[in-house]
Specification:
Number of strands: 17
Number of helices: 9
Largest sheet: 9 strands, mixed
Strand order of the largest sheet: 15-14-13-9-12-11-10-16-17
Radius of gyration: 23 Å
Helix content: 10-25%
Strand content: 15-25%
Structural class: alpha/beta
Shape: globular
Length: about 475
């Protein structure tokens, strides 16, 4: 894996002050100030001083959660997106460059709702300044990014609170599924599967088309990845869904693995108490055919990796080491119509657009985010071997996903979050290893301690990526 530089980038180039902030006073490159009035470094009344990095889309889902905190900074590459939040928090300083925002001294907590290809950057920079960080999923776009973020947090875990925005985790069904698996409702676990059926197809990066509008700082939107010319196609998605316009391209995202995969694999991750895998392999076959062949009985031809677009159809499999309550198991991710075999003919897994399935010695558990069913194997499996928990023994529900993070920010040594950068970091690192194996075209053996592929040297090139000059992952 490539070494990660610790050097801070040089001063970013000045950006033109435009749009609704045209009359504001600049205080350094990338800084656009609506008004003075930032709070002191120590927030009064045990309130957090929060910075929003990204103020549109998923960011708005957090506005209510921080209503009782101090919002002291707003940052977005689209000046129009800051208009509403700036009216809501008129004392907050405003920026278009998150690097300058994170130099504001009174910030102690950051909510990152930027594009996927900057998540790991914002998370690292925030933690390196001892700022608590809530980061929308995916936490990283490469294996290296995931490992650097996780390592940075583990060094600070008792003084910095983190949470990844897989907010479905607060649904009680996550706890019930985990309890059934760990308590032996389907016997000794052997396999786990998660899947998502979304299919978004693209031919390649959009060609150059027109010029960015005056309120959009397009070069800052591109950020650390190789430059691609402006095309309005990247910005045509609605609020909360704009990521579906660009996250399928290798430079900007990781496709469905980073999107709904982060939510759906969470059902499995929460139940199996995992560590990093020792192998990864992946394959892609046309929708409806898979490796078994098409309707004419002829073997299907696998889909090779595309140089610009992440795969639509994909099946990844990982070997997970044993832990103190289960043996070594195989974990699978399926997407784009590739699906695991149904446990019984009358169970149509395809009716579950995003779900999970666990196989044990005595049966199956099938679930989606909000429900679950148990399927014992046969007559001998009468479930007398399984003793349900009492109501008092059930895991307590997550009392508000953002609220959990806010409370942990105020006492990080004692209060923890469910989807911190260790838990979520190992999950996205695992799933990204599936993409590494797919691009390498071979099953790979992985050294989790060193973060390298040991038997397919060429696969190591896909663990990381090069960034544009002036952008530093671990600044």
């Amino acid at each position: 894996m490539a070494n990660v530089t610790e050097k801070r980038p040089g001063k970013p180039g000045d950006v033109e002050r435009r749009g609704f902030l045209k009359l504001a006073t600049g205080a350094g490159a990338g800084l656009l100030v609506l008004r003075s009035g930032a709070l002191g470094a120590e927030a009064p009344n045990n309130k957090l001083n929060v910075a929003f990095i990204g103020t549109w889309g998923r960011a708005s889902a957090h506005f209510g959660a921080v209503a009782n905190e101090n919002v002291v900074a707003l940052c977005d590459i689209n000046e129009k997106h800051m208009e509403g939040p700036a009216k809501r928090w008129p004392k907050a300083k405003t920026y278009v460059d998150w690097r300058k925002c994170l130099d504001q001294k009174d910030i102690n907590a950051v909510i990152c709702s930027t594009t996927d290809h900057t998540h790991a950057f914002v998370a690292n920079w925030a933690m390196n300044r001892d700022m608590h960080c809530y980061c929308e999923k995916p936490l990283a776009n490469t294996v290296e990014e995931a490992r650097v973020v996780r390592a940075n947090w583990l060094k600070r875990r008792d003084k910095v609170a983190t949470q990844v925005g897989t907010q479905r985790h607060e649904i009680d069904n996550f706890n019930r599924v985990a309890e059934l698996i760990r308590d032996g409702a389907i016997g000794e676990l052997s396999q786990a599967h998660a899947w998502g059926n979304r299919q978004i197809r693209r031919k390649g990066y959009p060609p150059a088309e027109s010029e960015p509008p005056p309120y959009l700082h397009y070069d800052l939107w591109i950020g650390p990845v190789p430059f691609h010319p402006y095309n309005p196609e990247y910005f045509r998605g609605g609020e909360g869904a704009n990521c579906l316009q660009w996250n399928m391209y290798w430079d900007f995202g990781s496709g469905q693995i980073g999107d709904m995969g982060s939510h759906t694999m969470d059902l499995v991750w929460n139940a199996i108490d995992p560590v990093l895998p020792t192998t990864a392999q992946a394959e892609s076959y046309p929708f409806g055919s898979q490796q078994a062949g098409n309707e004419k009985g002829k073997p299907a031809e696998p889909i090779p990796p595309h140089p610009e677009v992440t795969p639509v159809e994909l099946h990844s499999q990982f070997d997970m080491p044993a832990n103190n309550w289960r043996p070594a198991i195989k974990v699978n991710w399926w997407q784009g119509g590739m699906m695991p075999r149904t446990p019984r003919g009358y169970v149509d897994l395809n009716r579950i657009d995003h779900g999970a399935m666990f196989k044990g010695k005595n049966g199956f558990l099938v679930c989606d985010f909000g429900s679950r069913i148990l399927l014992p194997f046969g007559d001998a499996d009468d479930m007398t071997y399984y003793k349900p928990r009492t109501k008092e023994q059930l895991q307590p529900r997550v009392a508000g996903f953002q609220r959990e993070w806010i409370e942990a920010c105020k006492d990080p040594a004692k209060k923890k979050t469910h989807c911190d950068f260790d838990y979520s970091g190992t999950m996205i690192e695992t799933m990204l290893l599936g993409l590494v194996a797919y691009r390498a075209g071979k099953k790979i053996t992985y050294d989790p301690a060193k973060g390298v592929v040991t038997d397919v040297p060429e696969a190591n090139a896909f663990l990381s990526k090069k960034y544009r000059e002036g952008w530093t992952l671990n600044g």
